[in-house]
Amino acid sequence: MRKIPPLRALQVFEAAARQQHFSRAADELCITQSAVSHQIRLLEDHFAQSLFRREGRVLKLTDKGELLYQEAARIFNELSVLNQQITGEKQQALRLAVYSSFAVKWLIPRLSEFRRHQPDIQIRLDMISDDPVLSHSEADMFITGQKNQKGYWQQLLHKERLIPVCSPDFINQGQTLDINWLVEQQLLTVDEGPLGLDWQRWFEDNDMAIPHHTKQHLFSHVLLAIEAAIVGQGIALASDFMVVDDIAKHRLIALPFAGIDTGFEFNFLCKQRRLKEPAIASFINWLTLQK
């Protein structure tokens, strides 16, 4: 008789290894943290091997634990696909957790194309403002600033570069667009919390100080600043790829001033073990082809 590891313990181990945290695994599986610890001990007793080690307060996999995790993730994914094939169960709506600015200014205008090509795949957008906990209880797929997350496959979508934009009607015909003109205009400034004010960063990156007399209108979110720019209230800083459609439709123009690279990256993430699921694979293929 073949000797196989206890399957429930293997499921719990996969969640704990992916989350690198017993408590988060417990939340994902709707069990207690002590139940997670118990299942991990059962699995370690079965293999007579330690699967985790602690480095300070950080939970790490041992070499054997890493090997088991990679194979367990692959097996669970194949079982999920096999289950759909045998039962004929249709793919439920995929949940995509995504920043509201990315969704509104870039993804939603393009999503109708995906739906035309894949009408049987439903994508539910869940808006986020901060980086979410990566868990299937939150979403199936994520567009986030997080990267290099254990158990997750990632694809870089865009590196953030902020450029000054305003409505075409905001500029008088024949106006000389230089820094002297810029500082006399109303700047639509976004308060990015710990990162500070975006226009403040722009001036610092260009080795300048904002003159005291320069007017600034403060916003809590970049979407608000962009909309204010479209209706002619001032000059906003926006991610270049997010306003490409507004520029093409002449709602905004990019001003001839330097942009700044913020170092922030928009990444697509999904569980490594779910890469072969047809619906997720189709969405990834479509997403990575978009400009």
The proportion of residues in beta strands is: 15-25%
Major beta sheet summary: 9 strands, mixed
The overall number of domains is 3
Secondary-structure-based class equals: alpha/beta
Report the span from N to C terminus: 55 Å
CATH third-level topology of the largest domain? D-Maltodextrin-Binding Protein, domain 2
Q: What is Rg? A: 24 Å
Mean pLDDT: 89
Number of E-type strands: 11
Oligomer: single chain
Helical coverage, percent range: 40-55%
CATH top level class name of the largest domain = Alpha Beta
* Number of distinct helices: 10
Overall morphology: elongated
SSE topology string: HHHEEHEHEEEHEHEHEHEEH
What would you give as the CATH superfamily of the largest domain? Answer: Periplasmic binding protein-like II
Question: What would CATH call the architecture of the largest domain?
Answer: 3-Layer(aba) Sandwich
Taking pLDDT < 50 over at least 5 consecutive residues as the criterion, the unreliable ranges are none
How would you describe the overall organization of this protein?
- With about 290 residues, the chain is of the alpha/beta class.
- The protein folds into 3 domains: about 5-85, Winged helix-like DNA-binding domain superfamily/Winged helix DNA-binding domain (Arc Repressor Mutant, subunit A); about 95-160 and about 265-290, D-Maltodextrin-Binding Protein, domain 2 (3-Layer(aba) Sandwich), CATH 3.40.190; about 160-260, Periplasmic binding protein-like II (D-Maltodextrin-Binding Protein, domain 2, 3-Layer(aba) Sandwich).
- The chain has helices at about 5-20, 20-30, 35-45, 65-85, 100-115, 180, 200-205, 220-230, 245-250, 280-290, and strands at about 50-55, 60, 95-100, 125-130, 140-145, 150-165, 185-190, 215-220, 235-240, 255, 260-270.
- Strands 3, 4, 5, 6, 7, 8, 9, 10 and 11 form a 9-stranded mixed sheet that branches.
- β3, α5 and β4 (about 125-130) form a beta-alpha-beta unit.
- α1 (about 5-20) packs across α3 (about 35-45).
- The model has no long low-confidence stretch (mean pLDDT about 90).
